[in-house]
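Morning!

As promised:
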Amino acid sequence: MTSLLFISSGLFLGWSLGANDAANLFGTAVSTKMVRFTTAAIIISVFVIIGAVVSGAGTTETLGTLGAVNTLPGSFIVALAAGITVYLMTNYELPVSTTQSIVGAIIGWNIFSGYNTELDVLTKIVGTWVFSPILSALFAMLFFKFAQYIVNNYSIHLFKIDMYTRIGLILVGAFGAYSLGANNIANVMGVFTKTSALKGIEFGFITLSDTQVLFLLGGISISVGVFTYSKRVMTTVGKSIFKISPVASLIVVLSSSTVLFIFASEGLRSILLSLGLPPLPLVPVSGSQAVVGAVMGIGLAKGGRNVNYRLLGKIGLGWILTPLLALVIAYIALFFMQNVFMHQVYL
Amino acid sequence: MKKFVFNKSKELEKDIDEYLDTVEEALLIFERDINRYFNGHYDLFEENLDDILDIENKADDILKDIKYKLYTYMLIPEARGDVLTLLENMDNEVDLCKKVLMQFSIEKPEIREFVLAEFKDLSKQSLNSAEELVKGVRTYFEEISMVNDYVNKVHFYEHEADKIEERIKRKVFNSEDIDDFCKKVHLRHFSERIAYFSDLAEEISEKLSVATIKRSI
């Protein structure tokens, strides 16, 4: 019970991830009524949970090497600080990512507890923040050119394109939800893996380890976020921020999901290693920023239109401001937890 | 889900094809009847006047069905407005066929020999423009990269029709064969009515161009 109480801050972070980031996956599809909200919410929930439970370990390990939070109250504060940062930044309409908040909060814990922050791990993580929207833009340009070639060179009836787009939006949305679960569960539950007292369980043939039970809870909290709050966000995403066609939206979701997937897939990492190629790091990246990268990629593929340089600047600012704010909040909150509420926040 | 969307898409594809076939048929009936009139086969002209009324009713019924299905099945949400605007505008061409033939039947304009060739040419060029528009609208659904070729042809024939219309007006108003000013005005009116097929086609082709740009991904 105490364990559940302490992981509530992680569940809150999961809820906000479900409410905000999941909306990117089906925003255009739902707002243009190509896919019903209930269908979208069920698909996201199922695949986020599968992604989190099956492939969430890789990115969690990376966050663990950045800072191994070793008491439950410490984990609670780190996740809470990240959650408050997301809330504050969203309130001031600044682009925010749970990834950047949690990293800032973990560094805050490292400073407070006197542990060293592995600089090479931090460099690797920050590098992927910068690299992921760029990679997403490159994927979007590639997929866009391919789609354009198909539409221009093959006579496909408007109604068939509509049908293929609907099916594609559902498939790609499911893939996106899986990737989001696999990549971002570390942000939600990663700091609790070493401290939670939750035990593994067995459902018939399926056995879940301690960590997987934690990820399952995180996945459920993301689903609750999707069902309770994401409809409004989806309408905003679809109608005001990214007013793009359903086909372009399919490309955006596919590109950003591919980025999330390749930074979370241990399978892909082993394939690259077996081929003697340099492996990509398993790092939680921001889904929203990958989406912005993909939208800009399409803009560039269309000849440089729709490129919002102000938004790019804001994202760059977010890379610095979000972790810094989370770090400060975490440091102060850890101090209070340790000295006012008398809970040990590190060993 | 896939089967449902697939069946409805197929159904609408068929309906739109049938609608455009009907518009083409209306233009062909107009061409046949107006030539009968120009060639002095008035009895034959009057005998088959019901054909255009039937085809106009058929076009209206199909269009009503398309509108209902488009909104009920929630298909092509992004392009729905453009598709309906285009199809409704195409209906104006069918209405024009009926109206002009009726005016010929009721008012019986006297097409004098010295402008007969021009009138025939005017109806040919003006109808060419409308026919190219139908092809353009068809390619909007099937092969978007070809739309501009047809839009250019619409503009070309419209321009040709304009020149012939002007020639007819000059000939009529400079003519000493027609001494009644009312008859001159009457002929001017009919030249304008026939030329209106191409004016309307040009107007719709501009909407088609915009819809095509919007459809590009």
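Residues 2-215 of chain B form a domain with the Methane Monooxygenase Hydroxylase; Chain G, domain 1 fold (CATH 1.20.58.220).

Hope this helps with the figure draft.
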